[in-house]
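Morning - nicotinamide-adenine-dinucleotide inputs below, output right after.
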Amino acid sequence: MTDFDARLRWTRAHMPVTRAIGEALPDLAGVRLACSMHLEIKMIPAIEALSARGAAVLLTTCNPTTVCDETIARCKAAGAEAHAWRGMSDAELEAGLRRIVDFRPTHLCEMGAAITTYLHARPAEERASVRAAIEATGSGTTRLAALRPSYPVFNWDDLPIKEGLHNRHMVGLTACHAFFEGTRLTFHGKRVLVIGYGLVGRGVCDAARAYGGRVLVAELDPARALEARFAGEEVVAWNEGLPLADVVVTATGARNVIAERELACMRDGAFLLNVGHASEEIDLAALRAHPSERVLPHVERFSIGGRAIHLFAGGSMANLTAGHGDSLNAFDVTLAAMLAAIRFLVTEAPVAAPGVHLLPRHAWIDVARLAAQG
Ligand SMILES: NC(=O)c1ccc[n+]([C@@H]2O[C@H](COP(=O)([O-])OP(=O)(O)OC[C@H]3O[C@@H](n4cnc5c(N)ncnc54)[C@H](O)[C@@H]3O)[C@@H](O)[C@H]2O)c1
C-alpha cells in the first residue's frame, strides 16, 4: 500500500458524515456537474460519492497551488474528468473554463465564482445548460451578487455549519500550525497583525494567541473594528500596525492589501502569511520586483531597502498550500454540507428564481444532526 493509499483510507475512515450523506444521495444520472474547487485528498470521498450515484463530474481548480496531482488521479479513477494540476498557468486555467463550456454542465459547484464569472462574460447560449449552482466562499458570493447570475446560485459559505466551524475555527488554527511546521517558529514574543476581522480573521486572532502571539487587528469596516475592540483586541491602523508586526496575516478577500506602500512600512525580518481566498491579497508582482532567495521550502526572503521580508507559502492560502487544511473531523462536516447542497441543487433548486440565495436550512440540517450525534 502506498503512503497516499494509507492516508486516503484514514481520511475515508474519519469522514462518517460525508459517507452517510453520500450513500443517501439520489440517483444522479443525467447530472453534469462542473466544479471549481480546492483539490486535495479530503475531496476524494465526495467526488467518489457523486460519481457512484451516476453524476458526470468535471473537476477544475479555483487555486492551482492547492491541487494535489495524486488526488486528481484518484478522482479520475472514480470516473470524474479533470482539467487541473499543481502549478498550472493562468492560460491553462482558462482552458479549463473553456472545457467547462464544452462539457455543457447542468450544475456548478464553485469556490470563488470563477465559472459563473466566465460564463457571464460569454454569449448567453454558452450557459444555457446550467440549471443551478452552489458557491462556497465569501469572496465568490460577493462577486456573484454584483454579477446577478441568470440561474439560481446557492451560497453555502454563510451557513452556521460552514462559516461557523471551518471559517471561524479551523482556518486560523491550521494556518498557524502550517506556519509552525514550515518555519519551526511559534509566535511567542512576537506581534501578529491580523488584517481583516471577519470570521476567518477572528479565528486567526484566537489561534495566533494560542501559538504565543501578541495580536493586533487592522480592519477597514468601523463596525467590525468595534467588534474587535469589544472582543478585547488591540485595533490599529494599518500604518501603525505594520512597523510593529513580526507576522502579518491577511484575511480580507480583497486584492493588494499588502502592496509597495505597505511593504515599505514593514519591519526587518517580518513574515507575510495569507489565508484569504486568493494569493492577490499580497501584491506579488510588487514583492517579486525585489531580490529574493528561497530559504526554506515554504519561505522566500526578499530584500527590500536593506530589510528582509519573508513570504510564507508563496502568498497562497497558508493552511492549504503549506499545511494539511482542516482536520478530518472538521472537514467531514464541510464536505457533507457540500454534498447536501448538491443534493438540494438537483432536487429542488431548478424551481428557484435566478440570482444568489442562501442555501435553506432544510437542505443541510441533517448534516448538523448527524455530526452532532458524533
Ligand atoms: N484559507 C481558507 O481555507 C479559507 C476558508 C474560508 C474563507 N477563506 C477566505 O478568507 C477571506 C476572509 O473570509 P471572511 O469570511 O472572514 O470574510 P469577510 O468578508 O467576512 O471579512 C473580511 C474582512 O476584511 C476587511 N477588509 C477588507 N479589506 C481590508 C483592508 N485592506 N484592510 C483591513 N481590513 C480589510 C473587511 O472589512 C471584512 O471585515 C475570504 O477571502 C475567504 O474566501 C479562506
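Note: The mean pLDDT is 96.

O.
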